[in-house]
Amino acid sequence: MKLYTRTGDEGQTGVIGGRVDKDDIRVEAYGTIDEVNAFVGEAIARLDPEVHADLIADLMEIQHELFDAGGDLAQAGKKRNYKVTGEMVTRLEEWIDRYDKEAPEIRRFILPGGSPASAVLHICRVLTRRAERRVVTLAREQETNEEVRRYLNRLSDYFFAIARVANVRKGIGDVEYKRGGQVFR
């Protein structure tokens, strides 16, 4: 099998149900999820397996779920058996609650940074927010799996939580925004 097909040379790509322009909102939505997935791989590569084995295991599961989410969005506008479920959202909430207990209480806004792994996890967070915005736009135009939007919303919170944990476990404090007072009490 060749890696190139030349079928996209005219600016269109194949999706479930036909061909669309490469800048179609559906392609934009699942393409942004693909970007998140690539940075999740980068985060896994930067995490210390001896210190962050649980985070690595979670992230490897999330990589598969992101692929599933992209597949669900490639079916937008069609009634299919979707793979992203409410149970996945609930599990993310459980993980967030568990990891949040490991980090100190937040008093100020947190800036991306600290350890290299934490910085990449913050990139995952902001890209996930962008993917969520793309899915919201798509859902206005076509039927989608609503659980994908909910999943992405929780996933960005999960990335925030574990970015902090990645720093804590390495003995690195949060990078706080210092140009304002305490906003969380």
Give the helices and strands, then pairings.
Layout lengths: L11 E4 L2 E4 L3 H22 L6 H22 L11 H15 L9 E2 L4 H26 L4 H24 L5 E2 L9
Antiparallel strand pairs: 1-2, 3-4
Helix pairs in contact: 1-2, 1-4, 3-5, 4-5
Structural summary, described in words:
The chain is mostly helical. It has a single domain, classed as Cobalamin adenosyltransferase-like (Hypothetical Protein Ta1238, Chain: A, Up-down Bundle). Helix content is 59%, strand content 6%. The strands form two sheets. It has a two-stranded antiparallel sheet. It has a two-stranded antiparallel sheet with strand order 3-4.
CATH architecture: Up-down Bundle
Strand line-up in the sheet with most strands: 1-2
Per the principal axes of the C-alpha atoms, what is the gross shape? elongated
- How many extended strands? 4
EC number: 2.5.1.17
InterPro entries: CblAdoTrfase-like, CblAdoTrfase-like_sf, PduO-typ
Family: Belongs to the Cob(I)alamin adenosyltransferase family.
Keywords: ATP-binding, Cobalamin biosynthesis, Nucleotide-binding, Transferase
